[in-house]
Amino acid sequence: MISGPLLLAFILNLPFLRPATPRTDPRAWNELLAAFNTRGVEVSSEHPRCREPTLDGLYVRGQRKVVVCERGDRALTLRHEGWHLAQSLCLLDAPWLSDGDIAQALTRQDRLELDALVQPDRRRREAEARAMANLPQARYLELLEQACLQRLPAQASSTSEDSHPR
Length: 166
Hints:
Elements: H1 26-37, E1 42-44, E2 57-59, E3 65-68, H2 74-90, H3 99-105, H4 108-117, H5 123-134, H6 137-148
Parallel strand pairs: 1-3
Antiparallel strand pairs: 2-3
Helix pairs in contact: 1-2, 2-5, 2-6, 3-5, 4-5
């Protein structure tokens, strides 16, 4: 017989926990980094919140700064957080994709995470950023150019010193 309180532990297989993510494709990363740098966007891996084990990155709202932590597929994270920057600075929080386009681009995993982790008032904004990040990179860059053409146009970079490696 067991004396005292009985402690039961359950291990839940939560649907929004992702398996180990693939490594970053260096070519994709450099192409994205260049696209954001030519728009005067600082891409950094230095932020206190990068110590949080489940945070891959963040957009510093209202600024030309995106943080991509040193984990996961950094190119995917930059596409996602970079789109939050585009939503704020280029689109002034207006939607870019239709609801149908978003639904088509979201993975099952994205839908589960959105339902479980995102407040309803932020769902569309987050869903659009996830949908954009899931697009092939060439298409993403085309849409970024279109969305930011007026408010955050690309500028020619004259030296490599203009880039922010991380």
